[in-house]
Amino acid sequence: MIKNGDEPTLRPLRTTDAEAVLAAFASNPDMAKQGSVPSLDDAARYAENLLSPESPHKPLAIAHNGTLVGLVCVSVDAENRSGWFWYWMNESARGRGWMSRGAATVADWALTELKLERLELGHRVNNPASGAVAKAAGFLKEGTERGKFLIGDQRIDVDTYGRLRSDPWPTY
Q1: Domain region containing 87
Q2: Per-residue model confidence as pLDDT tens digits over 33-57
Q3: Number of folded domains in the chain?
């Protein structure tokens, strides 16, 4: 992303982002679907696990005025030259298009610099904003996994998306 006035930047996740990670997880109950981060120690472990040298994850922070407000990550499957693509954003930063641009940039990077051939992701059908991010990042819907998640006492469908290196690249 290009830094321009009040625009966000894309940078590597840092262990010093723990406080902002905790704030993001506390910003919306729906963030619990991304994992359990109830304390600052848990947030520090969350970042450390993503940054571990043994980790298959490639986490990049969306930062506003230097503070992490979102995360885009590719969990790399090197053997298959593919990656599971995922993202989240602090409630306070949603609705500005930042995640769409960040996701598109990270997807482009993963397909070129990491030399991956396929990226895939899934989102709950009751989260259309996540689907909009996927489409803006150049992902194509491949199907719906019916009743994939049990949330409370309700089964929730998941839409699945893929992006190949050979697919048309998004404009943003």
Answers
A1: 9-117
A2: 888 999 999 999 999 999 999 999 9
A3: 1
